[in-house]
Design goal:
three-stranded parallel beta sheet, 3 strands, mainly alpha, 109 residues, 6 helices
Length: 109
């Protein structure tokens, strides 16, 4: 947690394949703007780029370009930080998960 508080930007350049990236979700939940590769699972947790900035898997030039955008644009960082935090609260928080779990187990949400 202390590292997220110190971070200006979180970068996850994974080539995949992997399951859901908890470290990206943690960064988002701490209000850190995220730059992540566009593998399938990252597109899902990043709402197809609505709450994270993405770059093409393995594309170093695009990673560099997108990172430069975030570094140079404070408003862009803030937009992604706010969007990421909101997305995690709305989709991945305990309260957001409760209703679908109750539905799956037919426990009347």
């Amino acid at each position: 947690e202390p590292f997220y508080k110190l971070a200006d930007i979180f970068v996850h350049p994974t080539l995949g394949p992997e399951g859901s990236s908890l470290v990206t979700l943690e960064a988002m939940s701490h209000g850190v703007p995220c730059l992540i590769s566009d593998i399938t699972v990252n597109r899902e947790i990043g709402a197809n780029g609505e709450c994270v900035l993405m770059f093409g898997r393995g594309c170093v030039d695009e990673l560099k370009s997108q990172l430069r955008r975030l570094v140079e644009d404070r408003d862009l960082r803030q937009r992604y930080a706010t969007a990421g935090l909101s997305h995690v609260k709305n989709r991945y928080s305990a309260s957001a998960a409760l209703t679908p779990y109750l539905r799956v187990f037919d426990l009347n949400a």
